[in-house]
Amino acid sequence: MQAVILVGGEGTRLRPLTSTVPKPVVPLVDRPFISFMLEWLRSHGVDDVIMSCGFLATSVRNVLGDGSAYGIRLRFVEEPEPRGTAGALKYAESLLDERFLMLNGDVLTDIDLTAQIAQHERTAAAATLALVPVEDPTAYGVVCLREDHSVSEFIEKPGSDHIPTNMISAGAYVLEREILGLIPAERNVSIEREVWPQLVGNGLYGYPSDSYWLDIGTPERYLKGTFDILEGNVKTAVQERLGTSYMALGDTVELMGRAIPPAVLERGVHVAHGAHVGSLVVLGQNVRVGAHTIVERAVILDGTEIGEDCVIRDCIVAGGCCIGAGTHITGGAVLGEGVTVGAGNVISAGARISPGVELPDGALRF
Ligand code: GDD
Ligand code: MG
Asked: Which ligand 1 atom sits closest to the C-alpha of 139?
């Protein structure tokens, strides 16, 4: 089975994590984000993936290689300029099979694609959209179904005055090649605004699912996705690493303090005496946590060093940062790569610090 993954967006809402790394390869728990999608696709029989790239395509290719690590043939297609969700598909036309999957590349899910494909066959659909319920559908494509699962209405990002259902398009589609005939070539085309409406009553079906689903595009949702993976709320390969103790310890971890599951402590992590890390913590390779420091509900990426007596909670600290003693980082703060924070700072309230910034001792108190 073949799949096209759309990864052309810039990931602006996930900055500063995406200032230096494109969204598909931002690390999530212990692997590049897009690996979760590749592993999920592989488990449903996908062995041929076309990545439709825009922004920083070369670094995505450098991280993922030819896909052999995933048992998948992986090819990359780069549009000359952003062509939109349907235009990007049209641009890959010469590589596409008679039937294939298309995925929005920014979701973490374990939807049963095998069952979705089976329904697609049963109904002889031209396109079958996976659907999931969400609390606030206004930021998504809202989909109404008839009894036979054919779509009666598709509204992309509805105004709050007309929301007929909370079922939204999950960004996972089974498509027949014939729909490419509906997409004009050489221009920006939105599949949501220009293709689905034409297919309503004409072969567009929905596959309702109650599986785990999350768009990871903001720091809050990135943390939620991390915690859900650690808790096992979504089926992923990380569960095997965590085992029944919900604790994954890499080689040569030096644990003088305490670690509370669920947590992942990668190779070379050092936790000094009196420190406590967890629960819901990811410490990347060679992270160092100073004495009596507390790290809770947080992601600290490779090579970051945290001093003594710090409180690091509900936040994301990218790789190569250096945090001075007594500093508090809380409340959804995000530090980009290579940030240096002097002693005694307080960073909270969703603050975002750009890569490479240097803050002197006691400079920030918010
Ligand atoms: N190659 C390429 N070229 N990819 C693109 C382009 C483009 O011009 N524009 C967007 N993408 C990719 C993004 O990287 C993302 O993975 C996917 O297409 C969807 O784009 P978003 O910008 O994230 O759309 P959205 O989240 O606002 O809405 C879409 O996803 C929702 C589910 O998360 C729509 O498909 C909604 O209908 C859907 O409910
Ligand atoms: Mg999105």
From this structure: 27
Ligand 1 geometric centre to CA of 104 (Å): 6
Decide whether 2-211 matches 220-359 in CATH topology: no
- Does the pTM exceed 0.90? yes
Q: What is the DSSP string of 121-160?
A: HHHT-SEEEEEEE-S-GGGSEEEEE-TTSBEEEEEES--T
Task: Give the CA distances from residue 41 to residues 38, 71, 160, 323, in Å, rounded to whole numbers and listed in that order.
Answer: 5, 11, 34, 39
The CATH number of the domain covering residues in 220-359: 2.160.10.10
Q: What is the mean pLDDT of residues 193-208?
A: 97
Q: Is the pLDDT of residue 118 over 80?
A: yes
- Nearest ligand (C-alpha, residue 85): 1
Domain boundaries, the chain: 2-211, 220-359
CATH of domain 2-211: 3.90.550.10
pLDDT band at 56 (very low <50, low <70, confident <90, very high): low
Residue 346 tokens, joined: 């307080």
CA dist., res. 239 & res. 246, Å (int): 8
The ligand whose atoms approach the alpha carbon of 141 most closely is 1
Residue 56 Cα to ligand 2 midpoint, Å, equals 18
